[in-house]
TrEMBL record:
Residue intervals of the SLH domain: 250-311, 312-375, 386-441
The entry's keywords: Signal
Endpoints of the signal sequence: 1-45
Superkingdom of the organism of origin: Bacteria
Species this chain originates from: Serinibacter arcticus
Protein name from the UniProt record: Glycerol-3-phosphate ABC transporter, periplasmic glycerol-3-phosphate-binding protein
């Protein structure tokens, strides 16, 4: 079965999207920094703005962000420039007033092969580890700073695996120095590889994002692992070297749902929202069929457990007061999502067929909307197609409209052979996926 959903982009993913995973082939780059006061033209007055020119003459590797900021009582705006040394181009920073400045490299470049640092007045690269930005004096006469040698930053690597050792896809990662807010990010390339480059020689805490959400890297007796919360594992980095963490274990969603399993993301979502709590022994039983009473509970929780007083007399002959999920089942009937069978029963322990699942979801959306604060129009405006989307669902099938609506709303693609299999019971893992999509995630 292939009802697949698109992953939501989250904060780490967005921050890492422009990241680089290029090989660290270079050991240093050389920069030639020239500070000058150009001769004034007829339209300029003597003592007007000066110019800072940076020329990188090193091996092709990456881009460097240059920031020049005046210091002192006068202050002034920060001037920015991107030095593209892979093309060995120069970049001029203009409109600088004579006086003291700080010259920063890569302070705001979150993904880069080179670490953050500054240039000092002698044209030397200074790491952020020094804590204080050196001052470069820009005067009204020509000066030359450099050449400046910048080392490659340190790199933290690892591989995400589940508790059985299978790869888990990484979406993004960030490394934050201890006691600081600045961070470096690593991009996910669709694999399990963790790579965060451009680090200074200091200690970092790591945050990692997978399809299951955001995690922190913690230290366990068995080695590095991810967790939703906890004390961050300190990871040391050094300039020009790689810190290899090896296998990093992503926690199981349930005891029988590993992070690499099909629908693990969707099962984690229903768990986090309280839509599904699993069984008392810690299992989710992903391949077990969904019974009709459990379906009532899922939809009631998906609706946010709205206020409802269960009736003193049951509307169904086989659901007496006090039955497990009695409130949820009677809420389902009161909301018009289920009318039960013609003989007045609900049959709570009967598995839900995929056609009936489509009807339940269609009526749920018709009553409550597809997701919070969304107009309830996806059902009322839907026009039943004259031809069936699936070869095993005829236009005269009892739930043809509801199944066709699910396909039109991209809630299901059916199976790989093009069928929908309407009478097949829906499994709990697939139900988690359907519920997540109905919510709009």
């Amino acid at each position: 079965m292939s009802p697949t959903g698109r992953p939501r982009a989250t904060s780490l993913t967005a921050r890492a999207r422009r990241g680089t995973t290029a090989a660290l082939a270079a050991l240093a780059c050389a920069a030639l920094v020239v500070v000058s006061a150009p001769a004034p033209s007829s339209a300029e007055a003597v003592g007007s703005t000066t110019r800072l020119t940076v020329v990188l003459d090193g091996p092709a590797a990456d881009l460097l962000l240059l920031q020049v900021t005046p210091v002192g009582p006068a202050g002034g705006p920060t001037r920015h420039g991107m030095v593209i040394h892979r093309d060995r181009q120069s970049h001029a920073i203009t409109q600088l007033s004579p006086g003291p400045h700080t010259v920063a490299l890569n302070q705001d470049r979150r993904t880069n092969l080179y670490p953050s640092g500054w240039l000092d007045d002698a044209g030397r690269w200074v790491s952020n580890e020094s804590g204080t930005a050196p001052v470069v004096t820009i005067g009204s006469s020509w000066r030359e700073l450099g050449p400046v040698s910048m080392p490659l930053g340190g790199t933290i690597t690892g591989r995400l695996v589940d508790s059985a050792g299978a790869d888990v896809t990484l979406l993004g990662a960030s490394a934050t120095p201890a006691g600081a807010s600045a961070e470096r990010t690593g991009s996910g390339d669709g694999s399990a590889r963790l790579l965060v480059p451009g680090l200074s020689s200091t200690t970092y805490g790591l945050r990692v994002e997978t399809f299951l959400g955001e995690h922190v890297l913690i230290d366990t007796p068995a080695g590095p692992a991810l967790a939703t919360e906890g004390a961050l594992m300190p990871v040391s980095a050094r300039l020009g070297t790689t810190t290899a963490l090896g296998a990093i274990v992503v926690p199981d969603v349930f005891t029988d749902v590993l992070a690499s399993n099909q629908f693990a993301r969707e099962i984690a979502w229903v768990k986090d929202r309280g839509v599904a709590t699993g069984f008392p022994d810690g299992r989710f039983a992903p391949l077990q069929s969904v019974n009709r009473d459990a379906m009532a509970a899922f939809l009631y929780r998906l609706a946010g457990e709205p206020p409802f007083t269960a009736p003193e007399a049951s509307p169904f002959a086989d659901v007496p007061v006090g039955t497990q999920f009695y409130k949820e089942i009677t809420w389902l009937a009161d909301s018009g999502i289920s009318t039960g069978w013609l003989d007045g029963t609900f049959r709570p322990l009967e598995p839900v067929g995929r056609d009936a699942m489509a009807a339940f979801l269609y009526r749920y959306v018709d009553a409550f909307g597809r997701w919070a604060d969304t107009p309830r129009s996806s059902t009322t405006r839907f026009v039943t197609p004259v031809a069936s989307r699936f070869p095993d669902v005829s236009t005269t099938s009892p739930f043809h409209r509801e199944i066709s609506w699910m396909a039109a709303e991209y809630l299901t693609n059916g199976f790989g052979d093009g069928t929908f299999r309407p009478l097949q019971p829906v499994n709990r893992d697939a139900m988690a996926a359907f519920l997540m999509r109905v919510w709009g995630r």
